[in-house]
Design brief:
With about 80 residues, the chain is mainly alpha-helical. About 50% of the residues lie in helices and about 0% in strands. It contains three helices and no strands. The chain has helices at about 10-25, 45-65, 75-80. The radius of gyration is 17 Å and the shape is elongated. The termini are far apart.
Length: about 80
């Protein structure tokens, strides 16, 4: 098991990090330096869009790993551009 420590005072960054960890299905703990624990804030519209996009991307990657989905290779993608 690895332990990562991220220090931030920016609430937007904290919410974004939590969203990413949730999509990756990684357990995490938040330790506040303040005595009063802050309650999680609901996602705003842009954060919801980011969360859904990340969630869909990771589901696609899981499908690809199982052979249920095929991605184009980089050369084919560049040739199309």
């Amino acid at each position: 098991m690895a332990t990562f420590t991220i220090n931030t005072e920016d609430k937007k960054s904290e919410k974004a990090l939590k969203a990413i960890l949730k999509v990756l299905e990684i357990d995490y703990q938040v330790q506040s330096l303040n005595k009063a624990e802050s309650k999680p804030q609901p996602f705003n519209k842009k954060e919801k869009q980011l969360y859904e996009s990340l969630k869909n991307t990771f589901h696609d990657i899981e499908k690809w790993k199982k052979g249920e989905l095929e991605f184009k290779d980089a050369r084919t993608l560049l040739d199309e551009l």
